[in-house]
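It is worth pausing here to work through a concrete case rather than discussing structure prediction in the abstract. The textbook approach is simple: state the sequence, then state the predicted structure, then interpret. We follow exactly that order.
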Amino acid sequence: MTTIGKDLAAIRKHLGFELDDVHKKTRLPLDTLKRIEDDSLLSDPDENIIYVRSFIRTYAKALKIKEDLAVKSLDQHEVGIYNGLLLDAYPDLQPKKRSKSDKPEESDQTKKDSASGVSGESKKKTDKPSLDSQSDKKETRPAQAEMRQVPVSTSRVVKDEKWAEVGHMVHSRQNSIPVWIVGVIVIIVIALTSVYFIIDSDLFNSVGEVSEFETTQPPPAASETEGTELSLDLADREPADPAPTALADTLYITLYAAYDRLEPVRVWSDIKPRIDPYWVEEGIALNFEFRDTIRISGQYSHMLMFLNGHRINNFRQEYYNQEEGAVELTRDLFESDIEEWSTPVPLDLPENVSEPDSLYNRPAF
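Step two, the predicted structure:
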């Protein structure tokens, strides 16, 4: 059975590429590339389908496969009808199909035998041999009769098998009870049981008593509430809990692809000290964790950054590290105003920017 991973591996080998060549060209980890080729990445329910599709599209692009062909192949896989679409551009890799012209032809001897059988049968119908002639040709008739009866007996067996299958199908359909009838019976039983419990309970009586009590009770007089706790001044109430005065041990930068697709954005942090690429579709937001330092590089004009929902403005101009080639955010940047940055709020979005379609934590791979 053909799959997307097997077809990509076949195309790569056909083009003379090693797996390490694809790794250098796409910057995808070797483990991810191996999981693509053995189809374990597509079949893993814990993987985010958005990133899986991005990885496979990047792999296909490195093999010079058209973008629309890769997307259509992924769509076919999701509905379970993938049929080797990626191999359309490589006829040599497609499995050879047997054409109608490859059907074996009848030999000359077979044609002669069938012709002699027909002529012998027609001769038998027209000529009526005597009893003496029948005894003289007793040895030759069984062979001719056997040749004529072979196709007839074969056709009878085929017909008998087909009628047996039809009879079995009709018998099984008559014996089976339609599923919708069972469903209707179950619904009726549940409805009758619910009506019985409602009638048997005191629900309606209790509702009537409560409504009668509420209508008969007079409203409290104004003098009755004077001097009680309701008349206390707001200044006498206990103060609310103070705002947090320290940042959490682990901080999260929310990266939002607000204006276009990020392909890819690369992130390094002191919690995960390696540069990993992330393909983020437009409208998707990701959380990236760090303790003291995090570095982010990519298409800055397409993204927004937040800490606890507070927008980080002008991050490209103020926090870009020339030596690292990335925006570098550190804990001390946010400790200058702890009361603001430590209090979680909804995302502070600019005007004309909608809420993210989905918010995920950094995917593990």
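Step three, interpretation. Strands lie at 251-256, 262-269, 276-280, 284-290, 293-297, 304-307, 310-311, 320-321, 326-330, 358-361. The first strand starts at residue 251 and ends at 256.
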